[in-house]
Amino acid sequence: MSVSGPRRAGTRHRARRTPLTWVRGGGLTTVLFLLPMLFVFAAFSWYPIVRTVLMSLQHTNLVQAPTWVGLQNFREVLQDPLLPIAVKNTLEFALLALIFGYPIPLAAAVLMSEVRKRGGIYSALAYLPVVIPPVVAVLLWKTFYDASSTGVFNSVLARIGLGPYPWLQSPHMAMPSLVLESTWANAGATVIIYLAALTAVNPELYEAAAVDGASLWRKVWHITLPQLRTILLVTLILQIIATAQVFLEPYLFTSGGPNNSTLTVLLLIYNYAFGNSLGGDYGKATALSLMLAVVLALFSLAYLRATRSWSTK
Amino acid sequence: MRRRRRTPTAVRTGGLVTTADWRRPGVRFGLGSTQALLLIALVVFGLGPLLWLAKSAITPTNDTISHPMAFFPHGFAWSNLTQAWTNVDVGRYFWNTIVIAIGSWLVQIVVATTGGFALSVLRPRYGGVIMGFLYVTLFVPVVVLLVPLYIEIVHPPLIHHTFIDSYWAIWLPAGASAFNVVLVKRFFDNLPREVFEAARIDGASPFRLFWSVALPMSKPILGVVSVFAVLASWKDFLWPLLVLTNPDKQPLSVRLPTIQSQTELGVFLAALFIACIVPIVAFLVFQRSFLRGSGLGGAIKG
After folding, report:
1. Which of A77, B6, B19, B192 lies at a 20 to 30 A Cα distance from A171?
2. Are residues B137 and B237 in the same domain?
């Protein structure tokens, strides 16, 4: 992870640094190589980041010149009655996604790592939904969630005497339905991360435990899980960061409905900026995205610490 | 990262279940049946929805609506596929998707290889500063960029020409992926430095070092970057939705919600099916790169 090590290519003479020696020493060539990267990052990453901060303090509508309004955008966002709803829904999504999507991939990965023949089939099957374009997955599940009694899920559940359920049309069932689809679409990626981590567990630990006569469960509990604890923390933080930015599911499934029950923070940002055909409120949109970014940055810092200790272990 | 200190054995497993464990009938039966159940669950839940989609793509709309779980009660409707391809113009949107994916891939490869090469092999004094700025972007969620990027595309600074409805609006921002640059730079860092020094002593210019030494050795990492670049572009929805307003230029993912509201169910499901064929086939062919990249994903993705 070292950014620039103490070792320097000692071939260059740095006695007198003039522009000419700089060019001869390959300085210009290096800049040429860096140019594509510097251009795209300056134009499409660094500049927009700075611009977000500026825009959050401005009133902009693309037609008139922007005016400085101080913290007014932040105040307006914080006073918006939709904000608590969006925050609550986002937290609900994140929490449900953890309950659905955290233990199952772990259990599946532990089982899969012990498959003796054709383990590749397991990981291929688990990863398959991940490669499906998210729009396709959402629209397919929207068909499944058809609330009529001949909907796909309702007709399957009817065979065991359940339903019909309203799915996306009920304010109570809509959010869990979204999470279910999202778990289906993403769990495979987590399984693969766990599988990679499991192969890095030193088999000698298991052998030592076997010599001591430890049972399978004790080995899982006392060796596998402790050995995975950093990667478990990493996937936890990654999942929180991802679910805090959930957009596609509420946008395509329900447009935030019914009754704002699936309105998430990102959907609210989208609605501020692009939801109004008369012109977006870019100030409020950038103010809210900055607030979200600060919260996520805290999780990212935790993530950085976790990967640091993980890579130096 | 990849420590493999494993004694060569016939079976490659995680090592949790030792051969001695495996010989015990209880373990063997319990573990074997749990694994069989897992396989069934994976087939039903992982593959099931896709098999249903494949079936419904060639089933008449009325049958899918009234008996979604029945197997072809009144025969096939291959016309769904041809109708989707021609009448609903899926063919055109499919082509748009490919053009967008290729452009994004090319920009990402150029940026990541030249940038990674300069930072890792040429090592300018200010490289650390650049790396710092790259790392910062890993911690900025994409949503922060959405609005200013959009405005930049509508009213670019310096140039008085909007990039709305231009594929450059998608291709160029795709290149700004610090994840790619870091991945390639780390790969170059781990190559033996003697190779570069030897080539340099033989009088190879940096361009030659890049083209004839670094690139040929970096095929594995370029495979990972490529797979993810193409896949991400194939999956993208919100950004193309914002910057491509002309339906004739939009990729499939952006068009699908509209197709749903404008056509009958059977044709729509056929369109969905067509949209997942390429990613699925690509996955089956390049499975190794996919899974390796996904395992790496836990290491530095931010």
Report:
1. A77
2. yes
In a domain, B9, yes or no: no
B281 is a domain residue: yes
**One domain for residues A29 and A169:** no
Expressed as residue numbers, the domain containing A156 is: 72-312
B12 falls within a domain? no
Let me know if residue A268 belongs to a domain: yes
Q: Are B59 and B128 found together in one domain?
A: no
pLDDT single digits (tens) A13-38? 555 667 778 777 778 889 999 999 99
pTM greater than 0.90? no
Tell which A residues from 185 to 224 touch B, by Cβ distance under 8 Å. Answer: 188-189, 192-193, 195-204, 206-207, 210, 216, 219-220, 223-224
B10 touches chain A (CB under 8 A): no
Lowest-confidence range among A154-163, A224-233, A303-312, B238-247?
A: A303-312
Whether A124 is in a domain gets the answer yes
> Of A295-304, B15-24, B66-75, which gets the smallest average pLDDT?
B15-24
Tell me, letter by letter, the H, E, C secondary structure of A204-247: HHHHHHHHCCCCHHHHHHHHHHHHCHHHHHHHHHHHHHHHHCCC
| Claim to verify: residue B104 and residue B212 sit in the same structural domain | yes
Task: Supply the range of the domain harboring residue B268.
Answer: 84-300
Residue of A180, A116, A124 whose CA lies nearest to B43: A124
Instruction: Render pLDDT for A246-281 as a digit per residue (tens, 0 to 9).
Output: 999 999 999 887 889 999 999 999 999 988 766 788
- Residues of chain B in contact with residue A38, where contact means CB-CB under 8 angstroms, are 130
Residue A218 in contact with residue A205, Cβ under 8 Å?
no
Reported in sequence order, the residue ranges of chain A that DSSP labels E, i.e. its strands, are 58-59, 67-68
End-to-end Cα spacing for chain B: 18
A196 lies in the same domain as A251: yes
Contact A124 B287 (CB under 8 A): yes
Contact criterion met (CB < 8 Å) for B206 and A30 = yes
The answer to whether A230 contacts chain B (CB < 8 Å) is no
Complex confidence, ipTM: 0.85
Same domain, B28 and B143: no
Q: Tell me, yes or no, if A116 comes closer than 8 A to chain B by beta carbon.
A: yes
In a domain, A105, yes or no: yes
